[in-house]
Write a structure and sequence with these properties.
By secondary structure, this protein is α/β, with parallel strands linked by helices. The protein contains 20 helices and 9 strands. It binds S-adenosylmethionine (SAM). The site of S-adenosylmethionine has 21 residues, from loops.
Length: 472
């Protein structure tokens, strides 16, 4: 029985409801009248239901598809402007007791180098990341109650926040670790984490169980209900995602939106972010072994349809994707990207020799952070190192109200410019710096309020003189 407000995974992600949604979408994929009615609703920018969005995803009418991409771009502009938030993953440990078939960390993989950072190594990694210019991290770890218990994760978070190298500072630590208990989520909240991220991998229960044959992650309901427990533990910024390629993308798309609807209905606040990873080649993993891989066109359409369906939810794309692919989808709704990423344990301060590969997957975008920052600016985007919202208590529904009030341009836009200025002063190459300085001069003019503009100008001068960490 489908019930978005239920706390039971199989009721808020109802298999029957997804199947009905998919056949409804298929039946109407050439229904111009319905497609235009849905687009009309989408233009109000208050989102769409999973069923409506699924019709658009399946739609084969070229004119409608053009309008989907145009509207996604418009929504992106209106809610997120041209800012792109920057982050990097930090792999703490690849010890794992699970048997996930797509992940090289799986227990039976005996040829991957197993590593777990000591606190001294965490410090070194953080210094390396700070020296690149990062302010926001997503920490990653395999699931292993003996090697990576919650106490270890908490200790690492404490270490990360304690490191201040030169002008460096990690101001927001997001956490991507396995589903856990309410008590542990409360501990993560108390440790000052930003978003708790957990990818569903697949919403299809039968496939999920096959893809996770052994280990605690095998339990579909425990995994799917994790965000409810995280919210119960006080974390109100949660990040959803599926690993595209494992199951039929249309199924995952509907499941993802149903999960977002569930969080709204049951917890009063939707997901803070949605990630869109695709399965990649990795040690012991051949992505071709999964027969649901999606091409770049379908990928772009999924992103555009998510943007239209959940306008207030940020969207993240990682270095799993190539420069060309990232460039294309930035327009349609991506608001956060990683740069200069290493997916190996300890990979930032000590790049690995090939034979001791501990990486989780191959990255496609191997550019440095400086190159990514410069490329974004040349494309008209503002790379933002802002972490103000959660430090000012604007999480969960308070962040959503900021979005809804239209005040983002007076708040996020100046914060982006000020944190970019810090980056240019402390870490940028000469070329990036000159592109960035010109961009800041242009973009100050796009702050609507005169008094905010004035404050920003004063603060930019102070940043050039060495002061740091201003925020609205
Ligand atoms: N261990 C935690 C868990 O079970 O959720 C999370 C950390 S894991 C390091 C982060 C994510 O990487 C996984 O949720 C999965 O979606 C993704 N991943 C695993 N293997 C991958 C592969 N071969 N290609 C792309 N992404 C992969």
């Amino acid at each position: 029985m489908y019930n978005p407000a239920s706390k039971k995974a199989e009721e808020f992600i109802s298999h029957e409801e997804i199947l009905e949604t998919l056949s409804y979408a298929q039946a109407h994929k050439n229904d111009e009248q319905l497609a235009y009615a849905i687009l009309e609703k989408a233009r109000a920018k208050k989102g769409l239901s999973h069923r409506e969005a699924s019709v658009l995803l399946d739609c084969e009418i070229p004119k409608v598809n053009e309008e989907i991409f145009r509207l996604a771009n418009e929504i992106k502009q209106e809610f997120y402007g041209n800012r792109i938030v920057m982050f990097a993953p930090l792999y703490l440990s690849n010890y794992c007791v699970n048997g996930c078939l797509y992940c090289p960390y799986h227990l039976k993989n005996k040829h991957i180098a197993r590593k777990k950072l000591t606190q001294e190594e965490v410090r070194k990694e953080v210094i390396a990341l700070q020296d690149m210019g990062h302010k926001r991290l997503a920490i990653e770890a395999g699931e292993d109650p003996v090697n990576n218990p919650i106490e270890y994760i908490l200790e690492c978070i404490k270490t990360i926040y304690s490191v201040h190298h030169k002008n460096g500072d990690i101001r927001r630590v997001n956490v991507n670790i396995a589903a856990t208990t309410v008590e542990n989520y409360r501990k993560l909240k108390d440790a000052g984490i930003g978003t708790y991220i957990l990818f569903q991998e697949t919403y299809h229960k039968e496939s999920y169980e096959k893809l996770h044959p052994t280990g605690p992650k095998h339990d579909y309901c425990y995994h799917t209900e994790a965000m409810d427990r995280a919210m119960e533990g006080g974390i109100d910024d949660v990040g959803l995602g599926v690993l595209f390629g494992l199951e039929m993308y249309r199924y995952e798309f509907a499941g993802l939106l149903m999960h977002a609807e569930h969080l709204e209905a049951a917890c009063g606040v939707g997901p803070h972010t949605i990630s869109v990873p695709r399965v990649k080649r990795a040690d012991d993993i051949d992505p071709d072994a999964f027969d649901n891989g999606i091409d770049d066109d379908t990928f772009a359409k999924i992103i555009a349809c998510i943007r239209i369906a959940v306008p207030y939810t940020g969207m993240i794309i990682s270095t799993r994707e190539s420069k060309a692919c990232r460039e294309r989808v930035l327009k349609y709704g991506i608001s956060q990207i990683s740069g200069g990423s290493k997916t190996s344990v300890g990979g930032y301060y000590e790049p690995e020799e090939e034979e001791e590969n501990s990486a989780q997957f191959d990255v496609s975008d191997t550019r440095t952070l400086d190159e990514v920052v410069c490329w974004l600016m040349e494309g008209g985007y503002i790379p933002s190192f802002c972490t103000a919202c959660y430090r000012e208590g604007r999480t969960g529904d308070r962040f959503m109200s900021l979005c809804k009030s239209g005040q983002i341009q007076n708040c996020c836009h100046p914060n982006a410019l000020m944190t970019l200025k810090e980056y240019l002063e402390d870490y940028a190459s000469e070329k990036t710096r000159s592109v960035g300085e010109a961009l800041i001069v242009r973009e100050i003019e796009n702050i609507p309020k005169e008094n905010v503009k004035e404050i920003v100008r004063e603060r930019l001068v102070k940043i050039a003189q060495g002061e740091r960490d201003f925020r609205f």
